[in-house]
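Minutes, project check-in
Item: structure for the 402-residue chain
Input as provided by the requester:
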Amino acid sequence: MKTLFWQRHPLAVIVLAQLCGTSLWFSVNGVGLSLSRDLGLSEVDLGRLTLTVQAGFIAGTLAIAVTGLADRFRASRIFAVSCLLGAIVNAGFVLVADQPTLALMLRFATGLCLAGIYPLGMKLVIGWTPRHTGAALAWLVGMLTLGTALPHLLRGSTLGMPWEWPLLGASLLALLGGAMVHALGDGPHLPPPAGRVRLREGLAALGEGRFRAVAGGYFGHCWELYAFWMLTPFLVLREIERLTASPDWVAWLSFGIIALGLMGCVGGGLLSRRLGSLWVARWALTASGAICLAYPLLAWAPPGSLLVLLFLWGLTVIADSPQFSALAATTAPRERIGSTLAVMNAVGFALTIPAISLTTSLWSLQGTWVLWWLLPGPILGLWALRGLADPAVSPPAPAHQK
């Protein structure tokens, strides 16, 4: 009966497993303020821990792509094993948090494990729901967003307890996610193996004008997104201190700001059916860029108003992500789509590293003005998209071609 339930609701199983697995991503950030208080970690130290996860994810994604690992083994098995190893590594951080070298090594290993969770979740969606991949992708990215916010919820619900508890909670969630996908298995509609991915072919796709425009927009989005998520607790703490409210609110509000991105993804997916993916991507990138520009200029405003602005930023900053993925899938050369998307994702996540490094290292010196270092992302992303027509709203094909 359980197997029947899994197979009747595969998308629900996959997105919930994705939520649980990706709670490992920002697990340390959820207890960042506690680590600063108890272990003396600075904003720069916390930034390095996040950067290392990103580097591990990039390395893991490229390794899986180049070796063809995802085509030689079942996607559900890789997902489950990655969740298991990620849970162990994340829990191990508790033992070495005060040892910088070992702590960074374990966060890098966490990133490696996440490379077997997030991308493989996409493949599982294709295997189970091939006719609804677009809508499913919005839910999948939304769950990645919620998973990113989950450590803040775990911290908020364990206030007064040691900071180790939320980290161990994230590990337990990852184990649950792996077990769910292991019980589900691979879907009946997986595409045939694509063979060995060649990075040279993926880079060559950037010579295609339409794909280069989409990739440029995606790169700008990546520059802004993860740095904003990293800075969210610091921005919230600033407003909480101005309100002279309890610091306990930081975890809850940070969770809400990041988690609201789930609604942005799903709402953007619904709008894209009528207005097209490119329209949604452009307006989401424009809105988040406008907030990025305005926030430092409004730093004098009442704290409540700025918290509302942060919630709007959390809503829009991720809404374009599934739309860029959908656009990339339709504009990438069909004969080398696997290598093309692998390279695009790797480059995009690589751009998150300098953005996070720059903003966290300058936060103590520049305060809210550090946000303007994120502005090149939305500006250059929109510039790359100029003149691009949305395939979803292009003139309909003749009847015999439909």
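Outcome recorded: The CA atoms of residues 115 and 194 lie 18 Å apart.
No further action items on this chain.
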